[in-house]
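Researcher: I'm preparing a figure for a lab meeting and need a structural model of a single chain. I don't have an experimental structure, so a prediction will have to do for now. The sequence is pasted below. Please return the structure as tokens so I can convert it later.
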Amino acid sequence: MDTEAQPTERDRSSHPGTPGPEGRSRSALVARITEWLPGGRITLTLFVCLVFLLLLNAFVVQPFQIPSGSMEQGLRVGDRVLVNKLAYRFGAQPRRGDVVVFDGTGYFGDADYVKRVVGVGGDHVVCCDKEGRLEVNGRPVDETAFLHPGDTPSTVPFDVVVPAGRLFLLGDHRSDSSDSRDHLGSPGGGMVPVGEVIGRADWIVWPYDHLTRLHRPAAYARVPVAEGAHG
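Model: Understood. Here is the structure written out token by token.
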């Protein structure tokens, strides 16, 4: 008499190596799609990768090509940067010294721009002090680490208070940059709403020999919070 236990139907269906009904359904669906698509699994794989890249570009990171010399010498014409689109999500805000890409429509022009954040909401930004330096909230900022060689902080004097929810933005190549200084008399006073910021430029990824992580300069670390501002 055979005394070995015979597996029940439940035993067979729950065996670790046996796909369940849900797994079989998914496999059958994939098989139907690959039969229908020209190129089969290769085409399906490429399509999935394309969808993934589109979602990545829309919500996480986006490549941006530097169109002008306004951010030299750090960012050169033709450089490609990766823009972190999650940098200012979940309550985070742009900070002084960040390099940001923003939609300038209605403020700078009908295009996307890349500039450095010099002032945030509530900041009092002045140029220049007696020593020719930019001053934010009464504190001089030494910009020599990133300012284009030979440039001064500004040949155009200004004294502005940045409205809440807006940014005062300048290019690093001040003598070759159209920025907040050039739009002080325009609607919005050259200040760009935080909501127009696409993201923060975190990496130069092309050309390869210019691969660089973009850091927030230490020059702004000692700038005090504006009077009446929070955080």
